[in-house]
Amino acid sequence: MVSFDRFLGLCLAAVMPAAPGPALAAGPDFAREVRPILAARCFRCHGPDEAGREAGLRLDEAEAATALLGSGSRAIVPGDPGTSAVVARIEATDPDLVMPPPHTKVALSATEKRILRDWIAAGAGYRPHWAFVAPQRPPLPVARFGSDHPLDRFVHARLAAEGLVPAAAADPATLCRRVHLDLVGVPPTPADVEAFVAASAGPGAGEAYEALVDRLLASPRYGERWARRWLDLARYADTNGYEKDRERSIWPWRDWVIRALDADMPFDRFTVRQLAGDMLPDATADDVIATGFHRNTMINEEGGIDPLEFRWLALVDRVATTGVTWLGLSTGCAQCHTHKFDPLTHTDYYRLFALLDNADEPEWAIPAADDDARRADLRRRIEALWEALPQRWPAPPAESPAGEGAGVEGAFAAWNAAESAAAVAWHIVQPATLESTTPHLTLRADGSILAGGDVAKSDVYTLALPPSDRAVRAIRLEVLPDDSLPAGGPGLAWYEGPKGDFFLSEIEFAAGGARRAVASATASFSGKAAFSGAEGAVTAAVDGEMSSGWTTNGRQGEAHAAVFVLAEPVPPGTPLTVTLRFERHYACALGCFRLAVTDRADARARGHDAATEAILAIPVADRDEAARALLFRRFLAGAAEVAEPVAEIRRLEAEVRAGPTTLVLRERPAAWRRTTRRHHRGEYLQPREPVDPGVPPFLPPLPAGRPADRLALAEWLVAPGHPLVARVAVNRQWQAFFGRGIVATLDDFGLQGAPPSHPDLLDWLAVAFVEDLGWSLKRLHRLIVTSATYRQDSAVSAALAARDPDNVLLARGPRVRLEAEVIRDSLLAAAGLLSDKRFGPGVRPPQPDGVTEVAYGNPKWTASTGEDRHRRSIYTFHKRTAPFAFTTTFDGPTGEACLARRDVSTSPLQALTLLNDPMVMEIARALGALAAAAGPTDEARLDLLCKRLVSRPAAAEERELLLARLAEWRRRIASGAIDAAAIAGAGDAAAERAAWTLVARALCNLDETVVKR
Amino acid sequence: MTGDTRGALARRHVLGAIPLGLGRVALAGLLAGGFPTRAARAAPDGPGTTPLFPPRPPHFPGRARAVIQLFMAGAPSQLDLFDHKPLLASLEGKPLPPDVIGGQRYAFIRPDAAVLGPRFRFARHGQCGAELADVLPHLATVADRLAIVKSCRTDQFNHAPAQIFMNCGFAQPGRPSLGSWVTYALGSESADLPAFVVMSTGSGISGGAACWSSGFLPGAHTGTRFRNSGPPILDVAPPAGTDAAVAAETLALVSALDRRRLALDGDPAIATRIAAYEMAHRLQTSAPELMDLASESAETLALYGCDPAQPGFARACLVARRLVERGVRFVTIYHEGWDGHSDVAGNVRGNCAKTDRASAALITDLARRGLLDETLVVWGGEFGRTPMVEASAVLGRSQGRDHHPNAFTMWLAGGGIRGGVTHGETDDFGFHVVRDEVHVHDLQATILHCLGLDHERLTFRHQGRDFRLTDVHGRVVSGILA
Lengths: 1013, 482
Known about the structure:
heterodimer; A: 1013 residues; alpha+beta; Jelly Rolls; seven-stranded antiparallel beta sheet; five-stranded antiparallel beta sheet; 35 helices; 39% helix; B: 482 residues; alpha/beta; Alkaline Phosphatase, subunit A; 2 domains; nine-stranded mixed beta sheet; two-stranded antiparallel ribbon; 33% helix; globular
């Protein structure tokens, strides 16, 4: 842990001169007034970026700014604007002298010039940027306006200083609705409101609210509501993005987030697990699933892309997302050059990059703990089927004499004799050296070679076999499945092409410095090449043509073998080099394989696995019972007579393997550490010198005495004394409730960011979040919603609209349009349609035709059926290139980049959606049916709708307007001018249902329905 | 901070919680002209005809006020349309000299693939003598109106990143598109239609919605996509069983109830929503009118080759003209299908059959209506195609061309553009630009320039940085300006 004092010392060393300047007279505030000017107008050329620096002058550090320049002058002479070159230059009228130079199109206003002059006159005092100094718990201001809630004390102190008073408390029904929308993302039921209003009138009013808050925090809908905001940051989507934008399975991570928030996992653990859960000692499956956070980056599967380039771009995204999500810093600038404003150098950026750069990115089959019974049962059934297989052998025809050659035993004996005669004894060889252009290769004890890590569109493996004591005439290449490979292997293809595929373009053999010709090539199976269906025959791997080759596509997850017979034997003692070339428009190298040799010229790929073949090569008399049993099964598995039950066995075996997968990070083995390099101008194709992993020096150091890796980064973020992480986290929560952060720029706490409106409140919250609340988001949310500030009436008086239009000072309650998901979920809930079903793959609620047609390949959107139409919006399938229209229309994210704060727009398209969208009409119909069935009066029916949609009965004048309209619509329905059945569906009371459907539709469109107030 | 950004922030401050863009616009309209002041309270006074985004002045007087972007997605073969390289015919079947190829990466082919000669005959057209392949007979008739840029270059060689790059100046999704920047800067002259319209006539767009995204600009600047079947705008058609009267009555009812809420709660954002509903109501009338091509003469329909019942490139071009006539600022038509990895000749022939007549007709029609001077038309794809052949047994491809980012051709016409110009030149292989290179950022700077916008001043503050369409690059191609 870095003590505050030591850390402050580091900050000061970095940002301040060693000795303080002259005593400061009262002048413009450096942080609030001066630095923003310097940052915006001067730092581009006179800031931290050495490469962009002009005249060797930097104005972001006191020491440099006051140093003697080459010209003999000093840019800043503290206390003496008259001799400060800066003042002379900014006030110059000569276009050749004035700063900033006219060609930059940046100009200083008269006020800005005055501030700089006054600041220099007052001593030119520099202060470290507030956000880079760890927060200290400020004292609580005195309680005012009747509240001693700590948050109110800060807000009220500011209000008092501004001569303002807080608004009265919101009425109980409004508050009940507000806190429901905020905490669980759906409005209260009419009964909820009634109960709360009644309780609020009684003596236990205060307790009633706290009880409500506690109930909501414990609701399973809490996690679903708050996970969505985290998903925005994580750029969650159910497709890969870019052109192909194919479906991916990462919903287990989304479910992990919901569960973690429901369980109130402290934010520090929440952080560490998502960034480095795989690296924790004794990592659980959940810990590994959590690393999906950074697997939400996009995957380009377009034909012909360079996979390494897009892996690198995903890393760029991860650095940016980490910066915004935890540090509240935009690191993007430093990808290309040293940051112009914040003290983040180009190299610092790539050091941060290096911390995240050492992971492989598998699609991980989740080991289902709760699934073991199912699998054990399947295995039992499979074994029973095997056991029973001989009995399924067709009985010999009744008239034929039973005897030798008939029945299963006879058939097996014949098979055994034939196969044994043809069997070849293979010698598995362990290559002396393994070379690879991209993937890392590991030789295992059984002689198999496992590949992992990165892949390229063209990869070459070169394997040097040790000299053999006998001649080599044929080489067997086994291609093997492995759980670590995509779809179980045997190939490494994981994007664009079929998962687990490989494509052996050429295999070459060389001995004694010469290429050895291949006389024949056979394979146990040859698949169809993906995309063209061309024959992927094994002979194509020895035809000298790179665009053709061998594949076992279609049989992923199975072992197969190819046998290459050389034209001439390689004499004993001669080392043999085997070169495997893989090349297609997607990466397609082998993931697991093994080599064996024999001196037999008649060797062929016979379709047996290596173990079977090895037994067959043993004289029959020498085989033990286990070997015989294995052969018998092997025989049965290939016999046409029992093909049907064998197919059933295969199906069950596939079921054993089936289960959800999710995208995770897996730290690479130490031997295969990636080298991270600085990239000139931030371009993938311009790598420069290697950099070591590390964090920027203006922040606390990484923990000493341990590797600087992803886990260190994660733990560093949540270590005590970090100046940014807790502030950034609490600020985001604050924004969720009030519509505006204490720092308005949620994603930028750097020098260009907005200064905090209530700095002490922010620091108090940040310290309390860690020290008092133990990083608990639920406790933080409870603290916020129990404040009087949160509970204020939100009405905007004319005076307040003029004085504080953004409600920065919080003299009233929050008033914000609901997020897309909350609008949809609220409407569904009001209509009684919202499903309680939780978790699982994304669902496709109905949406108008043509939303997805614009995406590549004109994909169809087939609406889900049953309750999946009405699931909570967090479960809506998110296609990046054509997102769900309702969500997009209401400013939902595309999932293509980290998003800290959504735009809140108001548009005619939103109006069209709420008026005409079939889903909203479905909701209105459900509401219309409820109203029509209710009673006894129209007033009561109307109140039912209003209570469900806006949590209150209709006011008198509203009732008058609505019932008048209802009466008119009823008349027109009765006259046939409006088609009731078309609106509400045929059936009982169609006319009444239609009339109320139209009323409900109008109510769905009220400002109040889509706004938290 | 530039003046532009400062202005935007100041306005945001004035209106408080109301989002940029529509919010302030709608309010301004409701206040019957005159920009609202801090003291102003919203006092809605009935339906207005305020544009969705009222026009804002450009940085300097621009020649164009609207843009029609004909995006030839998939990347047309410049070597078979515009950039005539006779040498390739004589080199056919042989590899290019390795020093020409350098380290260029390709999607499908190996760099040593053999040369494929031009597939069509070329001839000179118009007074300017522009050289065009004979698959462009209609474009040839307007050759003197075109500025043909043969020296375009991009950084990207895969479709999705390249399309996003061409639209957004950055190859990863997340930044605002050209159309969004333009409507953000200039607003709209239409009160009844979206400011930025996107149409697509093919098999789907590789770059997806990122190509017309508003990125970090206010969401209302996202391109509004017109569907090919049914009413063009999503949810613009009233629900079954309801009619225009119900729509009007519902609007009146919702407005009345919202006004009551506005009077009680005082939030100006409610006034914005009321205005948005009024605009939505107008869209329900204007959209069908826009798509009703019955008022177009048979001669005009024939000029475009447009069957009003058939969605397709010709109809999209005609609709684009109608949109521009009605004050829409930016229209993009995606025509997908130019990705000629195999049989590039057949690919070019087929796509020209679908687009040549209508592209030329659009120019002719705009010109005769006096709209061409103020409408910038931009034609082109996301990159070019290789001088080398693409052939692959395993993919069943032959006589195709792969993606080529180093050199390709686009043309511009209309507002701000000098017609009859051929700009830039490639080497004898059509591989590299050898004169007057026009990078994607230069094209973007030039398009903005034609609209009176300085690409260096059109900025938006996001995550602590002032972003531009052209990043830190771009220079206006003065050689093609009128």
